[in-house]
Design a protein that fits this description.
- It is an enzyme of class 2 (transferase).
- Helix content is about 45%, strand content about 15%.
- The protein is of the alpha+beta class.
- It has 4 domains: about 70 residues, DNA polymerase, domain 1, CATH 1.10.150.110; about 50 residues, Orthogonal Bundle (DNA polymerase, domain 1), CATH 1.10.150.20; about 120 residues, Beta Polymerase, domain 2 (2-Layer Sandwich); about 60 residues, Beta Polymerase, domain 3 (2-Layer Sandwich).
- Strand 8 and strand 9 form a beta hairpin.
- The protein binds 2',3'-dideoxycytidine 5'-triphosphate (DCT) and magnesium ion.
- The site of magnesium ion (MG) has 6 residues, from helix 12.
Amino acid sequence: MDHYETSKVKGSNEHFKVINYRKAITAIRALDYEIKSEEMALKIPRVGKKLAQKIGECISFGRIKKLDHLNWDQEKSKTETLFRSVYGVGSEMATAWYKDGLRTLDDVRALPNLTKNQISGLRFYDDLLLRIPRSEVEQIGKVVEAAAHKLHPEIQSQVTGSYRRGKPDCGDIDIVVARPNIDNGDELFMIMDHILKDLINQGFLVDHLSLPTWEDSYATRPKHFKYMGICKLPGENQIHRHIDILVVPWMHLGAVLIYFTGNDICNRSMRLLASNRGMRLSDKGLFDNVMRGKIRKKVNEGRWVAGRTEREIFDYLKIKYLEPYEREC
Ligand code: DCT
Ligand code: MG
């Protein structure tokens, strides 16, 4: 997967290979027995014939022949994976740094031209690697909810992402905020602005990775705002955590909840299913009568038909409602 990850181009075959490897790795991780042969590997869901063959090679020879053939450079791959694990560093940057002779995070720290996000990513690197227990995600969710309620008791704040899918621990905290019957950008930006100011004043938000921006044209139409930053609960020995907060139009809330609850593979499947039925699913809602040309490229945006609640989207797609914990694809 690392090999394909470093050589992938969006939309290319490599891109899909990375996804298929990831699905297989997840399935293998969930096993409670050792795989002892190619035949055993082939019985695992999401492990296809070719991958089973490679697993067989690993078992028999301790290596994969194809990688020898590709002159796969393990040091390069490991180093690039390390660099990509820093917030704000993508595949291209990681490859360029390796080419320039960088090998460790301290080499990277010494660079003069890091972006603001890369500096934050390095500063909080050790903390951000740690998984967040559910109980702490819950506490963090309550801090944001309290700030929202202080502004107006009607405002709803929900923790989504892996937490909502019931995972025992999470990589970050994904929060969605909305207010009943409020759709327009001016009011939503005001809500975001107040909540952020409050959380910064409390010392809860300690660094910002991406702040929402304002344009006058947002004022009278439904508009989504996204904040990304670093937070920390009050008290000694608390760990810095990555938090994303979305403030979204009430009419889009269901579509946002589906999107931000994920998982990413489930989102892909639902979008593909919509597309196969002549529709289009995004974080704004479900759109009908979408015309598509060659290679599925859409010709028009379609007509918005559902999005207020998750259930109305599932109903319109004519699929059984999936509880969040069932959205582990
Ligand atoms: N998402 C998506 N496609 C992506 C990335 C994210 O559809 N490429 C959606 C699904 C989950 C949601 O956004 C939040 O993203 P993450 O926080 O990255 O994922 P998570 O499922 O919450 O997992 P983690 O525990 O690692 O945060
Ligand atoms: Mg998450």
